[in-house]
Amino acid sequence: MKKQRNYTITENLLKEYQECSFLNSSELLIEASFLLGQHHYARAYFIGCASLEETGKGYLAFSARGRNLKSLNVQEAIKIKFEDHTAKIVSSLVCFLLKKELTEANIKKFLKLTSHLQRGREKAMYVDFRENGTVSVPRNIVRPKAAIDCVRLAKMALESTVQFISENQPEKSSSFADKMLCLGNNKITKIFNNEDFWWYYIDLLKKNRSITDLAKAVVKYHDELYCKGRCFNNKNKTS
Fold first, then answer.
1. What is the pLDDT of residue 1?
2. Which residue has the higher pLDDT, 11 or 171?
3. Residue where a domain stops, chosen among 131, 155, 172
4. What is the mean pLDDT of residues 186-192?
5. Burial tier of 239 (Cβ tally within 10 Å: 0-12, 13-18, 19+)
6. Number of domains in the chain
7. Environment class of 113 (CB within 10 Å of its CB; exposed 0-12, middle 13-18, buried 19+)
8. H/E stretch holding 138
9. Which of 127, 148, 172 is a domain's end point?
10. In this structure, what CATH number is given to the domain that contains residue 144?
11. Is the dihedral of CA 5, 80, 122, 46 positive or negative?
């Protein structure tokens, strides 16, 4: 269990964290590209994931600047987000999704990539045991194309996020954002890991491309479908 660090989040601290995260993401991309050139695909994949997480941290910091930082609960929730791998990767792709042409092929590619990123991050760096009693070795797992796609995605995610932030100001915390905080990190992670949610979110973007509040999508999905044991895809098939 990680020890909770006792620091206070302020507007200025978040601004510094945001800029430093983007800078580090950019530097990681340079290193990942070098590793690709040396055919170290597993390490390039891992560092590509790290770049995505740094971009996600920058976006999380940007979003947090609009929250009620006087609330201790909000402070703790922000800290938890900064430590969560899935939340950081998903956050890194929010702005990229807003710019991407939402064709069926691109949707399938996005879902496949995010699934691999969540499952393959650790496998790309560490030797481990498999359930069948064999040993998992990073260099034997990560294919060149997967590493190249990961680094390319990390580059596009960083560019999209930096551009979005340069053109927008942090939105003030909404009622949806407050509700999302109350859902708890474990439940939100389960929703993020559920492919059905991303089909739901993509459908919202198709209907209204101005939607940038991921919290609104999460809360609506939770209230309308998840907590009732229903799926968006099944609902569409029967409608």
1. 45
2. 11
3. 172
4. 83
5. exposed
6. 2
7. middle
8. helix 138-141
9. 172
10. 1.20.120.330
11. negative
